[in-house]
Amino acid sequence: MKVDTSKSKSFAVEGGSLSIDDLKKAIEKAEKGSFYSPAKAKKLLAQWRKKKDSL
After folding, report:
1. Does the predicted TM-score (pTM) go above 0.70?
2. Which SS3 state, helix, strand or coil, does residue 24 take?
3. In this structure, what are the phi and psi dihedrals at residue 19, rounded to the nearest 5 degrees?
4. What is the helix, strand, coil percentage profile of the chain, to 5?
5. Contact 33, 42 (CB under 8 A)
6. What per-residue confidence (pLDDT) applies to 16?
7. Angle 27-37-46 (CA atoms, 0-180°, nearest 5)?
8. CA 39 to CA 47: how far, in whole Å?
9. How distant, in Å, are the alpha carbons of 20, 22, 55 from that of 50?
10. pLDDT score at 48
11. Can you tell me the distance from the alpha carbon of 33 to that of 6, in angstroms, rounded to the nearest whole number?
12. What is the pLDDT of residue 46?
């Protein structure tokens, strides 16, 4: 079965469509954002687990 991918110009998202260029721009913007250090991420995950287990 032959699939033509050259016509695929957008990605379906809830409430509309998103062009490939818009997706790339959104990824670049997200990559420039702030990230947690591994130690901070582990601490937040441990806090979340503790809170989840106490419910």
Report:
1. no
2. helix
3. -75, 160
4. 55, 15, 35
5. no
6. 72
7. 110
8. 12
9. 40, 38, 9
10. 94
11. 32
12. 96
Q: What is the pLDDT along the chain (55 residues), one digit of tens a residue?
A: 666 655 555 566 667 777 888 889 989 998 998 889 999 999 999 999 999 888 7
Provide the token pair at 26: 């959104």
Q: Which two tokens stand for residue 1?
A: 């079965």
Place of tokens 């033509």: 4
Retrieve residue 24's tokens: 């790339």
Dist. CA 9–CA 7, nearest whole Å: 6
* Contact status, residue 11 vs residue 20, Cβ threshold 8 Å: yes
Task: Tell me, rounded to whole angstroms, the distance of Cα 39 from its chain centroid.
Answer: 21
